[in-house]
Design goal:
Keywords: Cell cycle, Cell division. By secondary structure, this protein is mainly α. It is built from two helices and no strands. It is rod-shaped, with a radius of gyration of 23 Å.
């Protein structure tokens, strides 16, 4: 266990914002754009009776898995926020107990 504990609340919030923003505004939208491009290709530029629908279905599943993985990044942000909140609450509670005694 670390001998010292230090939390930079502003940095925690900043990094959480970066993670959330990356998922919501970059990763997931780009994956969905790519999925639409693939669908367009398979419906107009690379059309094979049996293969194109199979490829499209596989790419749909692939995209769903990627999106789920990207969304899991937000869970890290949530964990960081929960740690920050727990430490804030603990610090406040300890100060109240010290001041009450």
């Amino acid at each position: 266990m670390a001998a010292n504990i230090s939390l930079d609340y502003a940095e925690i919030e900043r990094v959480c914002g970066v993670l959330d923003d990356a998922v919501d505004n970059t990763l997931v939208p780009r994956m969905n754009e790519a999925k639409e491009e693939v669908a367009t290709l398979l419906n107009s530029g690379l059309v094979l009776t049996a293969t194109s629908p199979a490829l499209e279905a596989k790419y749909e599943t692939f995209t769903m898995n990627l999106v789920a993985g990207a969304e899991a990044i937000k869970e890290y942000a949530n964990q960081f926020k929960a740690i920050k909140q727990s430490v804030e609450d603990m610090d406040k509670d300890m100060a109240e107990k010290i001041n009450a005694g």
